[in-house]
Design a protein that fits this description.
By secondary structure, this protein is α+β, with helices and mostly antiparallel strands. It has one domain (about 1-84): GMP Synthetase, Chain A, domain 3 (2-Layer Sandwich). Helix content is about 30%, strand content about 40%. A three-stranded antiparallel β-sheet has the order 1-3-2. A hairpin with a 2-residue loop joins strand 2 and strand 3 (about 60-70). The longest helix is centred in the middle third of the chain and has 15 residues, at about 25-35. It comes from marine sediment metagenome. This is Replication protein.
Length: about 80
């Protein structure tokens, strides 16, 4: 399936580690990604994305991150816009 996407990219969006994680925090993470996907530059440069949520646990607590498999209209996504 991924090989059929034009310019597939794997984007990992990390969040700060937290001591406690609950359903509201997970919803907030997905809401944050939705805010990114609603931005004009994202709509102009991508066809869409599939997103997965992952949490690891270490010395600093829970470390949530989103894996986004993005179908890009361009060869390189502008990381400086994604970070803003």
């Amino acid at each position: 399936m991924f090989e059929e996407l034009p310019n597939p990219r794997h984007l990992v969006l990390t969040f700060r580690s937290v001591k406690h994680i609950d359903a509201d925090y997970i919803r907030w993470c997905f809401h944050s990604f939705q805010k990114l996907a609603d931005r004009k530059f994202w709509k102009e440069l991508t066809y869409g994305a599939m997103v997965a949520f992952e949490v690891t646990y270490g010395a600093n607590g829970f470390h949530p991150h989103l894996h986004a498999y993005v179908s890009s209209k361009v060869g390189r996504l502008p990381i400086e816009l994604i970070r803003s």
